[in-house]
User: What shape does this take?
Amino acid sequence: MTGKLYGLGLGPGDPELLTLKAHRILTSCPVVAYPAPDTGPSFARQIAVPYLTAAQLEVPIIVPMRVERFPAQDIYTKAAETLSHHLDAGSDVAVLCEGDPFFYGSFMYLFERLADRYPTEVVPGVSSMMAAAAGLGRPLAARNDVLTVLPGPLSDQELAARIETSGAVAIIKLGRHFARIRALIESLGLTAQAGYAERVSLAEQKLTPLADVAEDTAPYFSMILIYKGDERWHPALAKKLGSGAA
Assistant: This one.
């Protein structure tokens, strides 16, 4: 009998946003693996640390956080080999993933290497996109709105084309692309309909209308939500955000 592999969605950062199922599995698995940058702490581990115990074996998966090396396939191949040893020994393994494992999550690279060899279960988590909408107090989409999720590194031309055909938009992975994307949104006349969310659900979170952001850069864990649909709630919410209610 081999162990079972779990991909656990941990949510956007607040440890209380773990699902009951993720908590149950996390606290019962003897082996806990998680992605970690080559410099600094693992964000996934920081979310889960209130629930970890000294009896659990921790397996950090060091992934260089540089665009030109991600996804680093050889790193996931080696990590899969390491985890397979624990699974072959009969130990269940929980792989931690901030947000949701299959929504831009690194767990998918381990899944494709291990799921055909070991019993595997993926536990969904609260995505940062859902948490940002909740924090900003603005629904993502309604009725027949088309919701589009766009990675910030896309070109201005592609971003503009996809925004044009969408009723609601979430732009993620802002980072060094923030100033360019904000200028694009301004050129499209959508700044008044855009909200900015940074480090959602954490103590240092920032929630504000995009027009009120003074900085020219943004952290990786930030996003812009735009609503262009037919619902009439967004002007009132923009006014509410502008008053500092967020």
Observations:
- Residues 242-246 have pLDDT under 50 and may be disordered.
- The longest strand covers residues 31-36.
- The CA atoms of residues 15 and 50 lie 8 Å apart.
